[in-house]
Design goal:
The chain has 67 residues and is α+β, with helices and mostly antiparallel strands. The protein has one domain: Alpha-Beta Plaits (2-Layer Sandwich), CATH 3.30.70.100. It has helices spanning 12-23, 48-57, and strands at residues 2-7, 28-34, 39-44, 62-65. It has a four-stranded antiparallel β-sheet with strand order 2-3-1-4, with helices on one face.
Length: 67
C-alpha cells in the first residue's frame, strides 16, 4: 500500500530528516520524496495516522493526500 503525504520541506536536509523518521516507523518499507512537489510517497502497511504522527514529531507540517 502506498500513502502520499504533503510535507513542508525546504531542502535536501529536510527530505533526509523526513525519510529517516518514516523509515524508523514500523511497517514502512520504502520512502520516496518529491522535494519539488513537496510530496512523500510511503510504501508499507503502516497506518496513515502513524505516518502523519512521525512527520509531525520531526517538526514538519504534514497533511495526508487523499487520492
Amino acid at each position: 500500500m502506498t500513502t502520499t503525504l504533503k510535507v513542508a520541506m525546504a531542502c535536501g536536509g529536510c527530505a533526509a530528516a523526513v525519510t529517516k523518521v518514516l523509515l524508523a516507523t514500523q511497517g514502512v518499507t520504502e520512502v520516496r520524496v518529491d522535494l519539488d512537489g513537496q510530496l512523500v510517497h510511503v510504501d508499507g502497511d503502516a497506518s496513515a495516522e502513524d505516518l502523519v504522527a512521525a512527520v509531525k514529531g520531526s517538526g514538519k507540517a504534514v497533511e495526508l493526500v487523499v487520492t
